Amino acid sequence: MFDLIKRLTDSFGVSGNEEGIREAIINEIKNDIQVINVDALGNLFAIKRGKGKKIMVAAHMDEIGVMATYIDENGFIRFSNVGGVSQFVSVGQKVRFKNGTIGAVFYEDKLEDMKSLKLSKMYIDIGAKDKKEAEKSVRIGDVACFVGDAVRQGNMVISKAIDDRSGCAVLIKAIKDLPETDNEIYFVFTVQEELGLRGAKTAAYQLNPDFAIALDVTATGDTPEANLMEVKCGNGPAIKIKDRSVICHPEVKKLLEESANRINVPYQFEVLEFGGSDPGAIHISGGGIPTGAISIPCRYLHSPVEAASLQDIENAAKLLVEAIK
Ligand SMILES: [Zn+2]
Predict the structure, then answer these.
(1) Ligand 1 midpoint to CA 133 (Å)
(2) What percent of the chain clears pLDDT 70, i.e. is strictly above it?
């Protein structure tokens, strides 16, 4: 599982620029699934045909990043966020543009105190001697992801983009491990979740499934002075009750809970008081779709050091397979 996650998190896929990660996922599954499609927005569909229930399983393949907005005469690049990027988390990091150009992220010396730090007072230094040289590598509108190579430490994986490449890894594992079933299953790797659940919205509308299950990360309450939250890393995948975008359907929640009990996978319940996720768009698509979610507990969300338990990710895959077979 670690090697798969490493391959996925190494791939480039800032929201709206998912070609790299989409190719990487197709490479992982092309011998294991009957049909692979890509829609107009870039969502990737891996389809297992059948006459039973029509099920949508979704994980977003995009990751947060930054976009070049202005290059000054000295070649320093101003930028804005693509998705939820914190100025405090970005300071001192490296970013990588699609063409491989690496930049250092730092802030103006004149800043009086750290509290007034804003992305607009920060810049990316790609080591260019002036604007002209910088423009040979980076153009306005180019996007970059954070650099945060995946490492394994005991049972934890630490990397950028665990949100939501860990969910993509769960779908890939489920595609490979799925036993004979009559259900028609659409494994959807969605685009632009980090910009407001955009890909999931059009994917769910096209499919109009009987029900849907999404896989994504969730915050935890197990770090020093964390906000109060029941979810802990290593205590098993979480069955989502709600976040700010959705209240999960009771029947799907029940299906997930019964499935976990049947195969003895440890689980916890997730009530996330901030943030939304793909189920928020899926459940209000068309005439409404019963939707639930399996969440992978993850510390330090939207940073280059997102940390999750490999055991939780493995168990999320087992739980998903049991629920959809
Ligand atoms: Zn996510």
Answers:
(1) 35
(2) 100
Q: Which option is the CATH number for 65-146: 3.30.565.10, 3.30.450.20, 2.40.30.40, 2.40.10.10?
A: 2.40.30.40
Which residue shows structure tokens 């338990």?
309
Neighbours of ion ligand 1 (CB under 5 A): 163-164, 216
Ligand 1 centroid vs 277 CA: distance in angstroms? 6
Closest CA to 81 of 41, 114, 112, 122: 122
Which residue among the candidates 18, 28, 184, 193 is catalytic per the annotation?
193
193 is catalytic: yes
CATH topology of domain 2-63+160-324: Aminopeptidase (3.40.630)
What's the chain's average pLDDT?
96
Is the per-residue pLDDT at 280 higher than 90? yes
Tokens of 324: 């959809």
Residue 45 reports pLDDT greater than 90: yes
CA of 184 to the centre of ligand 1 (A): 25
pLDDT above 90 for 132:
yes
CA dihedral 116, 119, 125, 129 (to 10 degrees): -90
Q: How far is the CA of 102 from the centre of ligand 1 (A)?
A: 24
Site of tokens 């290593």: 234
Determine the Cα–Cα distance for residues 298 and 216; give it in Å rounded to an integer: 10
